[in-house]
Amino acid sequence: MTQNAPKALIIIDMQRGMADPKSGRRNNPQAEDNMATLLAAWRAAARPVVHVRHMSRSPESVFWPGQVGAEFQQRFVPLATEHVVEKHVTDAFACSGLERWLHVRGITEVVIVGVATNYSVEATARSAACLGFATWVVSDASFTFDRPDMTGDLRPAEDIHLVSLSNLQGEYATVVSTAELLAPGLL
């Protein structure tokens, strides 16, 4: 991460629906605390924050507009000065205006946290890198859920998380921990 370069914290899909027990078992139980720590640091440093929320096109989804599940979790309610992006697919850049919003402000680096690692976090990080942004993904400030593979075998969230981060590391992003990101001089 470059010192003094404009960096935006992008918090993905921290909505009430993510806490629904139907989502299943997940990894990184400390992820929300780490996200909150990063959010507090960004706010204290007056750095740009982008809150992304998924607004489903399916009325059965907990993320259907107007449902409680589509609301931000209390700890991640945006301030009036923070940007909110709504998305309908996994990638926060797709048809959302996020790229333009970042460019207009001269932001060249993005730090991505949120859920789910193998869906919206990975898709957004890949797009960010392909669009020319220096991209950072915080491993302990993102999480995912257990999921069956293509053969029907249930894969643990820890494995899915690790593979997703491995897909990103080096090619699309630099994967760091919360502590590494908050080291003096990096924010």
Rg measurement, Å: 16 Å
**Main sheet: strand order:** 3-2-1-4-5-8
Categorize the overall geometry: globular
Task: Give the class from helix and strand content and strand pairing.
Answer: alpha/beta
- Taking all residues together, what is the mean pLDDT? 94
Could you describe the 3D structure shown?
- The protein is built from five helices and eight strands, in the order βαββαβαβββαβα.
- By secondary structure, the chain is of the alpha/beta class.
- It has a six-stranded parallel beta sheet with strand order 3-2-1-4-5-8, with helices on both faces.
- Helix 3 (117-130) packs parallel to helix 4 (157-168).
List the helices and strands and how they pair.
Blueprint: E1 7-12, H1 31-44, E2 49-54, E3 83-87, H2 98-104, E4 109-115, H3 117-130, E5 134-143, E6 147-148, E7 154-155, H4 157-168, E8 174-176, H5 178-181
Parallel strand pairs: 1-2, 1-4, 2-3, 4-5, 5-8
Antiparallel strand pairs: 6-7
